[in-house]
Amino acid sequence: LWQEIAARLGRDYEYIYVDTIAEQLATVAAGDADIAITGISITKAREEIVDFSLPYYRAGLQMLTRAGDGSHWSAPLAMLQSMVLSPEFTSIVGGLALVIIFVGHLFWLIERWRNPDFPRSYLPGVWEGVWYTIVTLVTVGYGDRTAKSVPGRLLAILWMFISLFLVANLTANITSQLTLSQFYGSIRSEADLPGKRIATVANSTAAQYLADRRIAFANVEAIEGAYDLLERNVVDVVVYDAPVLLYYAHGDGLGRVQVTGDLFELQQYGIAFPAHSTNREPVNRALLEIIEDGTYDRIYGRWFDAAQE
């Protein structure tokens, strides 16, 4: 869009790249740049420090989630993956494995001198002890191996009671993880945001929207940081300007993330100028020409129509 405006005005230009919209606006307000153009929402607070062109894009906020979150086919797999990879689940399973190995050693040490089912040699004997420990834990009790000594049977009784506690604890953890995964995956609209783990860019209109509604969120300096948090499962959803999210979802994030829900908190984008800039009127006239002669529609169709399909 800016290339077309500059061509119609016969202006040369160079780009100065900054990391955030806040830095962009500050640079323009200080007179260190003549204009700022990107996804800059026109707001009252921003109008107090810079001037804006006529609105050139009607946008709003939207949500970005991991691909498959909430879909009927892939949600169960995503929930299972999230549960299995969670630190709580892996620590419980790892701890349980260590307990099983330890108790298996105890059975072998007690039974190896009195019970032919537990070989005296280390690896075969410990394997039989671990096997007996596992089948007792899951209450299957195949009967192919049993403790025959008094100490062994006392240990077996104790292990049965401990197993009840361990199985109940593991079941409760799995149920809790599935419930949380279901909760975090149920993001359909902005009404589902409270209670979710959210990331957005600091000092953005999305951050203001969330703060006004007292919805907790994580601040990042640049939108790329929010994408990283989402894809690493640190947050459940990114809230930000729809065009930016659409561009990422159909570009670098294709197949990993998806734009979810409809537009909300509708807003207009504008080009920012230093206060009382003499460039504002010529840019506005060029912008109106571009809209009226159909050039704007061609530019829009090239960059946005495909992303919104």
What does it look like?
The protein contains twelve helices and seven strands. It is rod-shaped, with a radius of gyration of 31 Å. The chain has a five-stranded mixed β-sheet, sandwiched between helices. The protein starts with a helix and ends with a helix. By secondary structure, it is of the alpha/beta class. Helix 4 packs across helix 7 and helix 5 crosses helix 6. The protein folds into three domains: 2-56 and 270-308, 3-Layer(aba) Sandwich (D-Maltodextrin-Binding Protein, domain 2); 61-69 and 190-266, D-Maltodextrin-Binding Protein, domain 2, CATH 3.40.190.10; 78-185, Helix Hairpins.
Lay out the secondary structure:
Elements (H helix, E strand, L loop, with lengths): L1 H8 L11 H9 L14 H4 L3 E2 L4 E10 L8 H11 L1 H25 L10 H16 L12 H36 L12 E4 L3 H8 L5 E3 L2 H9 L5 E5 H8 L7 E13 L2 E2 L6 H13 L2 H14 L1
Parallel strand pairs: 3-4, 3-5
Antiparallel strand pairs: 1-7, 2-5, 2-6
